[in-house]
Design a protein that fits this description.
The complex is a heterodimer of chains A (271) and B (260).
Chain A lengths: L15 H29 L9 H10 L1 H35 L1 H16 L2 H12 L3 H25 L3 H9 L4 H38 L5 H10 L3 H29 L12
Chain B lengths: L1 E11 L5 E12 L4 E5 L6 H9 L6 E6 L2 E2 L7 E4 L11 H11 L7 H11 L15 H13 L5 E5 L7 H17 L3 E6 L2 H7 L2 E6 L4 E7 L14 H26 L1
Parallel strand pairs in B: 3-8, 3-9, 6-7, 7-8
Antiparallel strand pairs in B: 1-2, 1-4, 4-5, 9-10
Classes of the chains: A mainly alpha (271), B alpha/beta (260).
C-alpha cells in the first residue's frame, strides 16, 4: 500500500529567534563587556600603559587609522595566502594518506615532525634561509594551520559507509570515481570542520611570523607599539586581529551553508 | 540462474585463526525465483550474498551465474543493504540514478526510468527531496529503486528491512512482493525474520552457524499473491514450523552438547 503520495510541505524558514540568538545576543554581550571594561578603568584609574580603557584605545587607534588599515591588509594577505596554500596541500595529502597504508606510513612521520617543531623557533631560521619577504611568513602560517585540516579531511575520507564502497565496487567504478563521487562529498562536513580550525590557526601563524620578520602587519604593529609603550595601539591591533579571526571563521561557516547546505547542521565533532 | 557448487569461504582473522564462514554450500536458484536465506547470526548468510554479488570470492568451490563463474561484480546484479546508505548531498532522483552514473550508463531515458521506479514504490513527487526529509522506510524504498535502476536480472538483499520498525517492515514486505510481481527477477534475500522469509519466498534456505552450512531448503507451497491475511494458511504454518524447528532445534542440541 503506497504511502502518502503528496510531497511534504516546505520546511519552515529559520525562525527569527535563531537570528537573535546567533547575532544580537553575542553583540550585546560584547558591548556590555566593553562597557564594564571602560567603567572599571575609570573607576579604579588603571594606568593606561597597563590596561587602557576602550575609549582611549579607540582614540589612539583611529589617530593612526591609515597605518592600522595598511597593517590589517598586510596581515590579511599573509593569512589568506597561508590558508589557501594549506588547503592546496592538505586535500591531496589527506587523499594520499587514506589511499594506502604504505603511503600513510611514509608520510605520517613527516607530518608529525612538522607539528613537533616549535614554529616560533623555526621562524628566524626560515627568514635566514628564504630571505626577509612574504615567503617565510606564508610558510610559517601554513605550518601552523595545515595539520588539523589534513587530519580531519583524512577522517572524512574514511568515514564513508562500507556499503557505499561495496556499491561502487559492484558498479565496477574506478577508484577515481569512488573518490570524486563518494569519498570527497562524504568528507565535506569533516573538511569544513578542519577549515574552521585552519582559518583560526592561520591568523595565529601570521602573527607569529610577523613578530619575527615583518615591516608591516598587525603583529608588527603590536611588536613596535609595545616597544614604545604605546599600549592602547597594541590593544587596538589586538582587537582588530580578533575581529579578523571571527569574521574569517564566520565566512567559512557561511561558505559551507551556501555551497553545501546538506553538510552544515550535521558537521561532525572532530579534534 | 545462480549455481553454487560446494562453496567454502575461509577468513583469516586478525590473530591468525582461520574462520570458516561457509562450508560446502551448494545451491541452485532458478531464474525469477524468490529465495530467502534465514539463520542465526554468524551462519554466513551475508558472506554467501557477497559471493553471489562478486564482492567476495569463494576459497574453494565455484559460484556461477548463467554458467559463467563469478570472479568480480557483474553489472546485471542489484544490491540492497540493511542501511539505505543514500548520498546525503544528492536528491532522491540523483540517488536512484547513482549506479548508472558510476557505470557511465546515463542516457536521455535514465531520468524517466528512475521516475517510473519511484512511482512503482509509491514515491512519486519525491524526486527533488533530500534523503533526510524521508522516513526510514521511504529511504529504503529509494535504495530499492537504486538497486533496480540498471534493470538487473538478479536482486540481492541483505536484511533490507532489518532496521525498520515492525509495522513498516510488514508494509515493505508486501510492497516488495508487489514490485517483484510487476518486475520479476531472481531475488536472494537475507533475513533474520522467519515470518518474512516464509511470506516472501518460493524456497527458504535455512542455514546453521559455525561453520555456515545449508541445514535444509524448505519449499513454501503457499499460493501467490500472498498477504499477511494468509498467515494462518496451513502451507505457511508448516513451513514456519519446520524452519523454527531447524533453527531452534539445533540451538538446543548444540547447547546440550556444550554442557555435557
Amino acid at each position: 500500500m503506497p504511502v502518502q503520495a503528496a510531497p511534504l510541505p516546505e520546511k519552515p524558514r529559520k525562525r527569527p529567534s535563531a537570528a537573535v540568538h546567533e547575532v544580537v545576543v553575542p553583540l550585546l554581550v560584547t558591548l556590555a563587556a566593553f562597557l564594564v571594561w571602560e567603567i572599571i578603568c575609570r573607576l579604579f584609574k588603571v594606568p593606561e600603559f597597563l590596561v587602557p580603557a576602550p575609549s582611549r584605545i579607540w582614540v589612539d587607534t583611529i589617530a593612526i587609522a591609515p597605518t592600522v588599515l595598511a597593517d590589517t591588509a598586510a596581515t590579511l594577505k599573509t593569512v589568506m595566502l597561508g590558508f589557501l596554500v594549506s588547503i592546496i596541500i592538505s586535500l591531496p595529502l589527506a587523499v594520499m594518506l587514506t589511499a594506502s597504508p604504505t603511503i600513510a606510513g611514509a608520510l605520517y612521520p613527516f607530518l608529525v615532525w612538522t607539528q613537533s617543531i616549535p614554529k616560533v623557533a623555526l621562524a628566524p631560521i626560515l627568514v635566514v634561509v628564504m630571505g626577509s619577504n612574504e615567503l617565510p611568513r606564508v610558510v610559517i602560517t601554513v605550518l601552523v594551520a595545515f595539520f588539523p585540516l589534513v587530519i580531519s579531511s583524512a577522517t572524512g575520507l574514511m568515514s564513508v559507509p562500507p556499503e557505499l564502497i561495496e556499491l561502487s565496487r559492484a558498479c565496477r567504478a574506478s577508484k577515481w570515481s569512488e573518490l570524486w563521487r563518494i569519498r570527497l562529498p562524504y568528507a565535506i562536513p569533516y573538511i569544513f570542520s578542519g577549515l574552521k580550525v585552519a582559518i583560526s590557526l592561520a591568523v595565529v601563524g601570521a602573527v607569529v611570523a610577523e613578530f619575527v620578520n615583518a615591516d608591516a602587519g598587525l603583529g608588527f604593529l603590536i611588536a613596535t607599539s609595545t616597544a614604545f609603550f604605546k599600549v592602547p595601539v597594541a590593544f587596538g591591533a589586538l582587537i582588530v586581529l580578533s575581529v579578523m579571526g571571527v569574521v574569517l571563521f564566520q565566512l567559512v561557516v557561511i561558505a559551507e551553508r551556501i555551497f553545501f547546505p546538506w553538510s552544515s547542521g550535521n558537521t561532525p565533532v572532530t579534534s | 540462474m545462480i549455481v553454487l557448487d560446494r562453496v567454502t569461504r575461509v577468513f583469516n582473522s586478525r590473530d591468525g585463526d582461520q574462520i570458516v564462514a561457509l562450508r560446502d554450500v551448494s545451491l541452485e536458484i532458478a531464474a525469477n525465483e524468490f529465495v530467502t536465506l534465514v539463520g542465526p547470526s554468524g551462519c554466513g548468510k551475508s558472506t554467501l550474498l557477497r559471493i553471489v554479488a562478486g564482492l567476495a570470492l569463494p576459497t574453494t568451490g565455484e559460484a556461477a551465474i548463467a554458467g559463467a563463474p563469478i570472479r568480480e561484480p557483474r553489472p546485471e546484479t542489484g544490491i540492497v543493504f540493511q542501511a539505505p546508505t543514500l548520498l546525503p548531498w544528492a536528491s532522491v532522483l540523483d540517488n536512484v540514478l547513482f549506479p548508472l552514473r558510476m557505470m557511465h550508463r546515463m542516457d536521455s531515458g535514465s531520468a524517466d526510468k528512475a521516475t517510473a521506479l519511484l512511482k512503482l514504490v509509491g514515491l512519486a513527487g519525491f524526486e527533488k527531496k533530500s534523503p533526510r526529509e524521508l522516513s526510514g522506510g521511504m529511504q529504503q524504498r529509494v535504495a530499492i529503486c537504486r538497486a533496480l535502476v540498471h534493470e538487473p536480472d538478479i536482486l540481492l538483499m541483505d536484511e533490507p528491512f532489518g532496521a525498520l520498525d515492525a509495522l513498516t517492515r510488514e508494509e515493505m514486505t508486501l510492497e516488495l512482493l508487489r514490485i517483484w510481481s510487476e518486475r520479476p527477477k531472481t531475488v536472494l534475500f537475507v533475513t533474520h525474520s522467519i515470518t518474512e522469509a516464509v511470506m516472501l519466498a518460493d524456497r527458504v534456505v535455512v542455514m546453521s552457524p559455525r561453520p555456515g552450512r545449508v541445514a535444509e531448503i524448505v519449499d513454501v507451497g503457499a499460493p501467490r499473491p500472498r498477504s499477511f491475511d494468509n498467515e494462518a494458511d496451513p502451507a505457511f504454518h508448516e513451513a514456519t514450523q519446520r524452519i523454527r524447528q531447524l533453527i531452534f532445534g539445533q540451538k538446543h542440541a548444540s547447547s546440550s552438547r556444550a554442557s555435557s
